[in-house]
Write a structure and sequence with these properties.
The chain folds into 2 domains: 1-41 and 190-425, NAD(P)-binding Rossmann-like Domain (Rossmann fold), CATH 3.40.50.720; 43-187, Leucine Dehydrogenase, chain A, domain 1 (Rossmann fold). The chain is built from 14 helices and 12 strands. It has helices at 14-29, 33-40, 88-105, 125-138, 158-172, 193-212, 228-239, 262-270, 287-291, 330-338, 346-349, 352-366, 372-397, 401-420; strands at 44-53, 59-70, 76-83, 110-117, 148-152, 220-224, 243-249, 252-255, 283-285, 297-300, 319-321, 342-344. A 7-stranded mixed β-sheet has the order 9-8-7-6-10-11-12. A 5-stranded mixed β-sheet has the order 1-2-4-3-5. α1 (14-29) crosses α14. Bound molecules: nicotinamide-adenine-dinucleotide. Nicotinamide-adenine-dinucleotide (NAD) binds next to α7 and β7.
Length: 425
C-alpha cells in the first residue's frame, strides 16, 4: 500500500494506515529499533471458529477474533465489533489504536479489540445470545478483569456485554462484573457510559474550536453515523449552540440548511428499527455528499476510511473531529494538512468512551458507584488535559494533532516497555 496521495483510493488497509502514522511518530521520538519492533507487533492474536445452532436447527460457523496489541500499561481494553467487514487486519489496527488511545488519555490499560464476522441485524436475539456466549466460552482464557476487558463497539451494546459478563461469571464460578464494561446499569454499568464517547467528542470539539478562535454558538456541523457516537455527539454539539446541518447513517444522509432537530431525529430512529430511513427532517443526500458539505465542523462517527485520497481535497470543514476509529486514511492526512484543516484524531477525540469504561471498571472493583455528575466532571477533565497535552506536543514539534497524539502515546508506552522489559503481559 502506498501513501502517495495520487494513488487511486482503494480501501486502505487499516493496519497499514495505523502503521504509517506510527512510523512518523517513531521517527520524531527517535524510537530504537528494538522498541519499534516490539510496539508495532500485537502481543496476541486469537482466531476462533464459533459454532452456533441457528433458529432453524442448522449449525453455522462464525469467525471470531481477539487481538491484544499491548498490555504494558495494564490489562488490555477494547470493544467487540459485530460486522460482515471484520477481518484480522482491521482488528489488529483497532487493537493498536486502543493501546495509543489509553496512553493518550493516561488510563492504566493496554489495547485490544475483538470482532465476529456476522451481520447482527440478520440474527435473532436467541442466535445473537448463543453466538456471544460461545465466543465468550472460546475466549475464557483471554478475557479477565486483570487481563483483557471487552466493551461494546459497532454492532454490539449493553445486551451483549450482559451475556459476556454472565457467561464469564458462570465459567469462573463467581460474579465478575469487572470483566466487561458498557454493561446495563443494573448489572454494574456506570452512569454516563452511554453518552461518554459523544460527550468526549463534544469536549474535544470545544477545545479545538477555542484554539481556532471560533465561538461554538451558531457554528455549523455535519455528523456522519447516527449510532451511539454520532447521535450523541450531534445532540451534545447542538446543546452547545452549534447548528447541525446534516446527519447520516447506513441509509444515507439528511441535510437541512436551517439546522436539524437532533432530538427529534433520535426519537425517529428509535421508533424506526434503529435507522433514519424515511426521515423527513432534511433533504436526502448521500454519505459522500455529507462529508463535502460547507460546514465548519465535520464529525465522522461511522466507520473507517471515509475520508480518503479521493475526497480529502473536497472537504470544506475547518475542523474534523474523529468520533469513529480510523475514519481518515493515512493518504488523506497530507491533503488535509495542506488545506490547513485541523483534525482531532480518533485516539484522542473518541477516548471519552474508554475513559468512562475505566471508571466503570474502577466502580465495579470498589463496589461503590459514582453519580453521573462525578463521572462527567472527571471524564471532561481527562479529555481536556489530554487535548492540551497533544496540542502542546503538536506546537513543540510543528506536527499535526494526529502525529502529536501518536508521539505522546508511543512515548509513554515505550517508556513503560523500557522499565518493564520486553514481555509486559
Ligand atoms: P453504532 O453501531 O452504534 O453506530 C454506527 C452508525 O454508523 C450507525 O448509525 C450506522 O447506520 C452507521 N453506518 C454504518 N455503516 C455506514 C456507512 N457505510 N456509511 C454511513 N454510516 C454508516 O456504532 P458506534 O458505537 O456509534 O461506533 C461508531 C464508530 O465509533 C466506530 O468506528 C467505533 O469503533 C467508534 N467508537 C465507538 C465508541 C463507543 O463507545 N461506542 C468508542 C470509541 C470509538
Amino acid at each position: 500500500m502506498s501513501n502517495n496521495a495520487t494513488v487511486k483510493h482503494s480501501s486502505e488497509n487499516p493496519f497499514e494506515s495505523m502503521m504509517s502514522r506510527f512510523d512518523e511518530a517513531a521517527k520524531i521520538l527517535g524510537l530504537d529499533e528494538g522498541s519499534y519492533n516490539v510496539l508495532k507487533s500485537p502481543q496476541k492474536a486469537v482466531i476462533v471458529s464459533i459454532p452456533v445452532t441457528m433458529d432453524d436447527g442448522k449449525v453455522k460457523v462464525f469467525e471470531g477474533f481477539r487481538v491484544v496489541h499491548n498490555a504494558n500499561l495494564g490489562p488490555s481494553k477494547g470493544g467487540i465489533r459485530y460486522s460482515m467487514d471484520v477481518h484480522l487486519d482491521e482488528v489488529k489496527a483497532l487493537a493498536a489504536w486502543m493501546t495509543w488511545k489509553c496512553a493518550v488519555v493516561g488510563i492504566p490499560y493496554g489495547g485490544a479489540k475483538g470482532g465476529i464476522k456476522c451481520n447482527p441485524r440478520e440474527l435473532s436475539k436467541g442466535e445473537l445470545e448463543r453466538l456471544t456466549r460461545s465466543y465468550t466460552d472460546l475466549m475464557v482464557n483471554v478475557f479477565g478483569p486483570d487481563k483483557d476487558i471487552p466493551a461494546p463497539d459497532m454492532g454490539t451494546g449493553q445486551q451483549e456485554m450482559a451475556w459476556i459478563m454472565d457467561e464469564y461469571s458462570k465459567l469462573v464460578g463467581h460474579s465478575t462484573p469487572a470483566v466487561v464494561t458498557g454493561k446495563p446499569l443494573v448489572l454494574g454499568g456506570s452512569l454516563g457510559r452511554v453518552e461518554a464517547t459523544g460527550r468526549g467528542v463534544m469536549v474535544s470539539t470545544r477545545s479545538a474550536l477555542a484554539k481556532l478562535g471560533i465561538n461554538p454558538v451558531g457554528t455549523t456541523c455535519a455528523v456522519q453515523g447516527f449510532g451511539n457516537v454520532g447521535s450523541i455527539s450531534a445532540k451534545l454539539l447542538q446543546m452547545q449552540g452549534m447548528k447541525v446541518l446534516a446527519i447520516s447513517d447506513v441509509t444515507g444522509g439528511y441535510f437541512n440548511p436551517e439546522g436539524l432537530n437532533v432530538e427529534e431525529a433520535i426519537a425517529y430512529r428509535d421508533n424506526n428499527n434503529g435507522t433514519l430511513e424515511g426521515y423527513k427532517g432534511g433533504k436526502k443526500i448521500s454519505n459522500e455528499e455529507l462529508l463535502e458539505l460547507d460546514v465548519t465542523v465535520l464529525v465522522p462517527a461511522a466507520m473507517e476510511d471515509q475520508i480518503n485520497n479521493e475526497n480529502a481535497d473536497k472537504i470544506k470543514a475547518k475542523l474534523i473531529v474523529e468520533g469513529a476509529n480510523g475514519p481518515t486514511s493515512a493518504s488523506a492526512d497530507a491533503i488535509l494538512n495542506k488545506k490547513g484543516i485541523m483534525v482531532v484524531p480518533d485516539i484522542l477525540a473518541n477516548a471519552g468512551g474508554v475513559t468512562v469504561s475505566y471508571f466503570e471498571w474502577v466502580q465495579n472493583r470498589l463496589g461503590y458507584f459514582w453519580t453521573e455528575e462525578r463521572v462527567y466532571r472527571r471524564a471532561d477533565r481527562v479529555m481536556k488535559q489530554a487535548f492540551e497535552a497533544v496540542y502542546q506536543a503538536s506546537q513543540k514539534h510543528t506536527i499535526s494533532l494526529r502525529i502529536a497524539a501518536y508521539v505522546v502515546a508511543i512515548g509513554k508506552v515505550a517508556e513503560v516497555e523500557k522499565l518493564r522489559g520486553k514481555f509486559g503481559v
